[in-house]
Amino acid sequence: MPVSDDDSALAAEYVLGALDRSERRDAQNRIATDPAFAAEVAAWEARLDPLLDRVAPQTPPAHGWAALETRLFAPPDDPRPRSAWAWLGIASGLSTALLAAVLWLGEPMQRAQGPLWISDLVSDDGSVRLAALYDAARGEMRVSVGGDAPAPDRDFELWMIAGGGAPVSLGVMPHTGSAAMAIPEDLRAEMVGATLAITEEPAGGAPGGQATGPVVATALLRRI
Amino acid sequence: MPEIPTEDLSNLLARIALRDRAAFRALYDATAPKLFAICLRLLRDRREAEDALQEVFVKIWHRADRFASGVSRPSAWLNAVARNHAIDRLRQIRSPHTDLDIAHGFADPSSGPEALAINSDDGRRIDDCMGRLAPERAEAIRLAYVEGESYLDLSERYQVPLNTLRTWLRRGLLQLRDCLGPAS
To answer: Where are the transmembrane segments (chain A) (predicted)?
Structure first.
């Protein structure tokens, strides 16, 4: 949808960066709510981009990547999930009810509203452990991962297998610590009583959404 | 710097959208020097530019799924993420530029307008169209886009009232749009 010259000029001024702070914020709100205007902004970004051809690359700071990596991928500073896991590790054979209690420690404010389902995945040699707690009413699953990290450039991926169907990826797992994930609406019915599996995949997860790596552990999701 | 083929950058962004850290690392290595240079030119302060570079890559990690390869070139998308962040920051910390010479703080030996050869058809096209504008309009567009000057900065530089400057700059931009034609 073409926009008026006025709007096109405004989009250009925004991309140029010439607007003052409040005008700039107004333009950003407009981008968020007006697709035609947003498209014109994108068009201006493409039009003016060649002006940057003459900006010579500069060596980025030496610590740049390391700082970025720490910020994005380091385990969370909050020690509770990890200590909770350490506790789990020591007390192997812990009752499932206790396991559930441990998993909820991270966020004491939350109260499960419906039935809870739990799964305790342990690799054959015991080096990788993942505990999952699924709150069926909320469609939310919390996982706690412990033990050995995957090989370099590999990630653990969690899968749901229901009723003889193909495994469906639930996502790449953190190397350690805990995470909460929303289970997509269309999977929720199948989650109940499904089998969970962990595989080792290329970093970032299985290409094309199909498990390729060795199966590390599997376990049923059981009601508690 | 050799240009990174568009398909390679699109591919890396697609993999990053799927949380592929190796792809993210490869993208960082390939594009951080350019994105850092863009931040440095706009912010004119090494420390600020270093912080900005990190924020820009955090955004790229989280937003890679919003890059639509059919709509824009990946390098233009990445450059826009960097420019948008740096300009937001610039408008937050300094409005308007104070004394330009003092504010520069560092000398960029390669910042002269002819320091780098234009290396793409798009670059030659925009050069041609910029050449058809009144010289000071073209210069003002370049100063705003590459050096981060605001309307206020520009009206002081050219000694014209802000509204007048704005009117002729908008006219210049529309002229530029019509000369460039539909996006390639």
So the answer is: 84-105
